[in-house]
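From the pipeline queue, job 12 of 40. The input is one protein chain; the requested action is below.

Action: predict structure.
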Amino acid sequence: MMNAAIQTSLAQLQILKAKALAVLRKGENYELKTELNSEYKERRKEAVRRVIANMTVGKDVSGLFTDVLKNMHTDDLESKKLIYLYLINYAKTKPDLVILAINTFVKDAEDGNPLIRALAIRTMGCLHVQEVLDYLCDPLRRCLADANPYVRKTAVMCVAKVYDLNRAVAEENGFVDAVRAALADSNTMVVANAVSALAEINAMGRGDVWRLDAATAGKLLTAVNECVEWGQIAILEALIDYVPGDEKEAESICERVLPRLQHANGGVVLTTVRLLLKYEAHVRRADLLAQFEKKMVPPLITLLASEPEIQYVALRNINLILQRRPRLLGKEIRAFFCKYNDPIYVKFEKIDVLVRICSERNAEPLLN
């Protein structure tokens, strides 16, 4: 009896081993395919996570395209985001199959949840597939006029993607005009994204789609105080390219952006410094120029206390600033002394700055 039981157990182990080997031969994609088609919601959700994890580390999971598409009809926002990310990644290699997801995109663009509406319109724009454009126009037009500012700010960025894919479609449907109109939006997030979208369109080198005027510059200066940091950078970048009408306007703009030098984000600080240096050509008052110089120094030195990566970016910018203002940081020479734990790339940049700012007045501490 015992021998028979042992033989039965061994036989069962052999069967399990054979099944395991069969699964291994078919690979992980076969297992994921099975899980994606499971009748249990949680197993399908976990399978989608694993697919994205594999995609992120560079594994080819394009063979699961149709199985992933089947899971698009879900109310779970996390799963939907992951599936849309998968579609963006493989859209160019499988444009014919992406069309199968269009109905879901259009339906999601009319969903009651603004996050889902925005997600759908953003994903359709990022697919960058010509065949999707015909189905994108109507949902995009609705989202540009959506009652929710989050949807509107996403839609204006989508216009830049459409313009890049097909300029004629963007212009014929009035999308570019809608983005220009969004500069007067009541929500600062929408205004900042409209500036970013128009700047992106201009940068494509297909003509001057937008040029900042005095009236719009005034609105942007009002909006910049309420924007998040990346919106502030976008607006400041636009103002850098703006040519003030006269000295008084240049002085006014500079005075209104000076508080940005105290911002915690290094990108905002460096963009503000760039703007002030650019506008110096339009400002003749010596006292105001001296004020700019005095207020620029502390935030630049503060950036040197940040992480090495931010230090490096700051030092590179400081090197450029010193080409125009060689004496700007002469009194702060000690801030550029190399520390024992500085990465080598930071040390090289610090040495370059030291060479630029060293003079008879501050050479002694450096030589010591």
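Job complete. Residues 316 and 349 are 7 Å apart (CA to CA).
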